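Support case: user asked for a sample of complex input and structure output to validate their parser. Sending the pair below.
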Amino acid sequence: MLTFAFKRLLTAIPTLLVLLALAFALIRVAPGGPFDAEKELPPEIEARLNEAYHLDEPLYQQFGRYLGGLLQGDFGPSFQYKDYTVTELISAGFPVSLKLGGLAMLLALLVGLSMGTWAALHQNSRTDHAVMALAMTGISIPVFVMAPLLILFFAVQLRWLPAGGLGDGGWANLVLPVVSLALPQIAVVARLTRGSMIEVLRSDFIRTARAQGLPQREIILGHALKPALLPIVSYLGPATAGIITGSVVIEQIFGVPGLGRYFVQGALNRDYTLVMGVVVFYGVLIILFNFIVDLAYRWLDPRVKL
Amino acid sequence: MSKAKICWRFLLILSAALGVACSDNDSVHAVRDYGQIGGPNGSTLAADQTLHKDNGAEPQTLDPHRATGVPEGNILRDLFEPLVMEAPSGELIPGAAESWAVSDDGLLYTFQMRSDGRWSTGDPVTANDFVYSMRRALDPATLSTYASILYPIKNAEQVNRGELPPDALGVRAPNKQTLEIELEAPTPYFLGLLNHSMAYAVHQPSIEEHGEHFVRAGKLVGNGAYVLNDWVMQSHVELVRNARYREDAHTTINKVVYYAIENADTVFKRYRADEIDFTQSVPTRQLEWIRQSMPDEYIQAPYLGIYYFGFNTTRPPFKGQPGLRRALSLAIDREIITDKLTAAGELPAYGWVPPVQGYEPQQPEWADWSREERHAEARRLYKEAGYDADNPLVVEILYNTSEGHKRLSIAIASMWKQVLGAETRLMNQEWKVFLQTRAAKIKTQAFRSGWIGDYNDAYTFAQLMHSANAQNDSGWVNAEYDALLDAAAVENDPLIRAKFMQDAEQILLAEAPIMPVYFYVSKHLVKPWVGGFVPNIMDHVYSKDLYILQH
């Protein structure tokens, strides 16, 4: 187990380096720079800005400087948000995204797993079709359609919930963004669960369990659920990393100060350090979650060798 | 707040509103009838004086000397008080300076500071603060990108380029109460420039103590009506009343929350849910519905900006072809564009300079012609330039990616097709790519552009087309135009100066390196319980002038 973790860490470093180099190169290839604006700058002033942010150095030197900073946990200053460092922006945005994304994922798992299992147990029944139709709808309606509809109904018409913002962080402000984030995930989890559950329920060991007269509840929870979770877990790893780093759509629609918008804004504004910062952060999370998935596999299925 | 004070306020607002309506007599726009705010309870203030304002994008900085955009400007106006500030109507009134005198040659401004001006720490606001701040604003080390707005000050440009030390700047404080600013040339709009955050005073001790963190909540010291209480990135900036502000007794709003919301639809939903009292934008697609369902809450007013298309005069097909450029400008129907496309009350633009103070708006002679006459002239010029049905002009319009620009470019392309038979290709680029392509003047032919004036004077528009201006993306060079502008820049007599610029504009319009389309309007949704708002051409709003009525 420890050797496995150590090996994983060793492979993670080159992966991250490649990711960093690619992101660094790509954002620099994009035309336009961080200081381009409607009002063009006199050349001397632009030169001074480039100097202050070390953009006048050769690229390899800038990359080296960046890596050096990273090793000390310094993501550099943001070009766009001049009063803040990228580290500050990420540490302010991540808790919000983590909270929303974590809650959405929990909700998706609770509802999705139950819906999927229910549908699998009543395969080809009316409820099965209804549940799957619902899941299909969930997958096909994009968030940017669903979220405004939810706001219109619950916030503008009924006035039960706030239309946006985090307010003082109370649950009322969380409901709509969490539900909007969770809906497509519920759909995916339900479909995956149903498929894999149907397969597991047909396997020999379940038949044996049934033959022994075990109650349905125990068959499902005690025997079928664990192996049925395998495909869901492998989906959940990257999906969780994605969802807890924020969704630009949800953040824009609900005015939530998460991390997601920095991926888009950083790129659009050529805020080089911000783009790099969120890419590195996301990369680390993906690697971390894939590692967790592998550990979960081992726990779910003892035949898996680490 | 006493009744008498409310009445006084209404009078002030009413007269200000009338002032706006008179100065912009050629435009029709909605000005709310302030007498009826709050209905029968019109004069009762709400217990909770918190104003929730939408503020567009997240502010990029709250350092007044590094700020450039509208969202920053809105917040900074509440946090700092310039030497000269604005009444709700936009008219200049004494701010941190209680009075000023201008020398006969227009080169020396002497400001008398108020004796009761205080920083939010309680320190007095002195002339020395402004000397320190203007030097800081222009010091190359501050990395300001908008410093050029202060270039009218003596030696400012050299200081900003690092050719002279900051203390060579023509700003002096003979004593704590007197501030002298020496200019390079008479600059009639100079007082208006002092409204810009570049000319704000910052608190020297707190900058020395906190370095670049001086803008953080809890550290930012200002001399304005409000102080920074909280700043949650990408969510909101919260200001509370500055009890030490010299006119705090006249301030009504206790707390202002500026929300950073980029999406106009999101803003609109939060407005409808009563979470926001005052919006900075209005979703264009829902304008019709808004006009019908909440006519009293939608407030539009002329705004100091122009939406235009430029022609690259350094390359074919527009190089040396003023006739062709004029033909294309004649062929578009601006009324259709503003009535059907933008439809927010924009004014069709035939001239270059929007209605500003002290300037006679200019138009090409064909502006008053009938549609048929214009089209006939357009066809004649088009033919004269060597194009016809068999040999049509093939032209590319470049615009930055946006639904609105796309719609407008399509409309213009179809008008050119219909009237002249010209073939147009549409090309869109992401903002930063677009900026670079446009400035390079190599691939561009026709391109979209816009300009919002920095100050309420024709020069902010006129200078854009000077051949030495980096933003002259048309690459248009006209010696006579440059000479007239250079003459205007040093002319002290306002009438002669205006005449120089008006003559210059006539040259510009005849040569048509640009095709004006419309003058912008500012658009706000304002809840009926928000009182004291007067639309003005700069779209500058000070929260201290507003109040919340019982609702």
